[in-house]
Design a protein that fits this description.
heterodimer; A: about 170 residues; mainly alpha; Four Helix Bundle (Hemerythrin (Met), subunit A); 2 domains; 7 helices; about 0% strand; B: about 475 residues; two-stranded antiparallel ribbon; about 75% helix
Chain lengths: ~170, ~475
Amino acid sequence: MELIFFYIFAIFAVSSAIAVISLRNPVHSAVFLMVCFLQVAAIFILLRSPFLAAVQVFVYVGAVMVLFLFAVMVLDLGKERFGEHLHHQSPIAIIIIIGLVFVMGLGLAKAKLDAPIGKYTEAAMAKNTEVMGELLYTKYVFPFEVVSLLLLIALIGAIVLVMKERN
Amino acid sequence: MDVNIQMFLPEIVVAFLAFAILAADLLKPRGERKSLARLGIIGSLVAINVLVLTADISGTTLSGLFIQDGVSVFFKILFLLTGIFILYMAQEYEEKIKNFKGEFYALILFAVLAMMFLASSNDFISLYVSLEFLAVTLYILACYTKEESVSVEAGLKYLITGALASGVLLYGITYLYGATGSTEFSQIKLALNGKNFSGFLAIGLILVVLGLSFKIASIPFHVWAPDVYQGAPTPITALLAAGSKAAGFVMLMRVMFTALGSIRPHWVLFISVISALTLLFGNLAAMPQKNIKRMLAYAGIGSAGYLLMGIAAGNTLGSGAIMFYLLTYLFAIAGTFLAIVIFYNSEGSDSIDAYTGLSRRSPILAATLFIGLLSLAGVPPLGGFIAKLYLIAAVVKEGLIWLAVVGVLMAIAAMYYFLLVIKRIYLWQPKNDTPIKVSPINKALLYSINIATLVLGIYPGPFTDWVMAIAKVLF
């Protein structure tokens, strides 16, 4: 049962991701990206990680994509056609991608996953958000602090690059 | 959770320094911002002192995600020195950036901080996060002269290739996690004990190496280097060349030697082929270049090839040689780029044509370029020669004779194109022979950098002993 749902979500996620990069209109691409993110959120739920699923929906689908759509519409990029900037590279790209998928499929077909699965039992995962929060502030406090610096730098960078000096 | 604050005291100093510069920039009236760079240089010197005083406290802290050992101390000193040179170059270059904003100096320090985090990363999660921190800082710095279209192009190209490479790296990390059940390097090493080499490991390994190849500008993620090196402000080009490359190699050393060292027979050919291709491409493509920053970009790709020889060797000699090479590379890059900045400030050009007859106009600039470029090429008795010698010795020791042959041949190629520039500087007549003014401080700095390069070449003993001793902790 779970597997069937996984395949449904996976197929939708991959096909909407392909739609994102192959559609010519940026607004359509952005909408398909939202579809893709929603499918990934659904897969997180299948993996017993409701917190990540919620974050995926709130942050990516809610905040980032809506902001992105606003930017696309305000700047009127809808009229811009991406196709004009491509220099007939798509056939080569398709061949390379198919080759890559084939090689990786071959590697995966030979492999079997024998590493121990995470230490969290089904019961512990019921308190998913608590577990995540505790890990973030204890074990992973170093990456957490680095991410906070990263966000600060991104903020400063955006201001520095956009701000105009008043004369 | 264990927290040993002494292990990351230097990082705290640098972080405070960067914030202090941000605040001081706000408080200062409009006008030039050179004093902020001086504050940064003094602070970095303090950080080096703190680092040296706390160097004997080694081990892991912050739940094993942060490691302090000989290698991380060496690289942190290297990064802080790079930061000092870059800050000095940046304050020389300040007038050339239109609408200059003081955040430039703070961002350089944040980049140094990110590189220091990378040197201490003991886990794929802290490695990835620090890598992104460094990358975002460098994206901003690369397009800082946003009035010029080349700089914006540089920033965009860097951003797009960087995002792709970081996606590839992250995808590879998930495979390694799937195969070993851990993201911590020492745990991965334990998990690999007595395990068969599986497809999961192979894919993870290949993707991680490809992802990291972006930072060191080796094949296949090398395409950004020439455009970004040419378009970025010159001090940032030097930061990319000396700092970002060293940061890439400290990551590669930890991942390949500490985490994946036990499966070396499976990756040695892969790394050797990348190394050889990078050597060939970088050195052959550097020959026809007309712009000195672009030529140094291709030469930098070639250097990544040499350094990868040390990774392919996978022994103490190889990893010690990588560290020694990066040390000589820092001084060669610092001297060359400081000369390029001074020349650009006077002439407003980076094209190799403009350097014609430089020896008659400014002997000190000409001598610096002579020593810096020949050290990059690996001519005795300069530091670069000893470094290349050790790298070639390391691969020969492991029986990779063909790779050593490629390395030697490409050293000759590098000598050829650098000597073309030197011939132009020394033997040709200048078009106008007005002398180029070099301030006394600049002169003193150029002299000391040149002496450092010479000392590393003539009397390398103490330095090589040091790096060989600390290289042991990786295995």
